[in-house]
Write the structure tokens for this entry.
Amino acid sequence: MSHDWQPDFEKLVDEHQSMVFSLALRMSGDRGLAEEIAQDVFLELDRNLGRIESPEHALNWLRRVVMNRSADALRRQRVRGIDLWVEMDENHGAQYEPRSNPLGARLEGLLATLPSPQRAALVLRYQEGLTPDEIAATLESPLATVKSNLQRGLKLLRAKAESHLKEYIRGT
Amino acid sequence: MGLESMDDFECELQQGMLRRPAPPGLKRKIMARKKALDSERTHHRVVFWQRLAASIVLCGAVGGGVSWHNIQERRKGEAAREQVMVALRIASHLLNQMNEQLAEHNEEK
């Protein structure tokens, strides 16, 4: 616990806005909603800034809160997976950012069709590079559940990729 | 770049899951909302202290009024008791006088 560390809100926004926005976007599948979630998360951080003890604490806190907020938003909106995939593909795959890796973009789109617990585990694993233990701590879930979600999510995603992305598999 | 092996698949997934840059203006929006919330919080704090001060003044005024009323009532009570005591003293004096007159009258007989 480095109590000497003084959190600088603006610096924290600069450092983590990309991470927070990306997690919210991949969990919600909606760019506007993700931006709203990111704003809310940072405002919550501002309210709790006194309790943040270190840069690592800030990072973990942000990851945990953005995942919770995104799950809440998903629960509220009841977004259906396939609609989300279409929206992700149309709005985020090409329009906003030309991707150098089209297969990666398609995989990302397919990821949005997974059940939310599996998606959360995979996003934290492959976007943030967290270990299953760290994912369990972030999501406040049992380690066994996280491992199961990772395995099932990967399996499901692989199956979807094989049926939806045949052209990439054959063509490369 | 096949998806046959799990490692390749995971590699592709990782490539596709790089962090996206935040939308331009996100930080500006966050800072603007923070500023608005801060000023709202300050306003609420000022209103809270104003209300607290007004409540204290009101409680003081009501308490003072009640105390003043009690003091006045006690003073009235004391004055009334004093008057009763004076009346009793006068009555006692008169009775004593009557007793003395009766005693003198009995002695004369």
Residues 118 and 149 of chain A are 5 Å apart (CA to CA). The interface with chain B takes residues 9-10, 13-14, 17-22, 25-26, 31, 35, 38-39, 42-43, 46, 92, 97, 99, 101, 103-108, 111, 122-123, 126-127, 154, 157-158, 161-162, 165, 168-169, 172 of chain A (CB under 8 Å). Residues 82-87, 89-96 of chain A have pLDDT under 50 and may be disordered. The two ends of chain A are 50 Å apart (CA to CA).
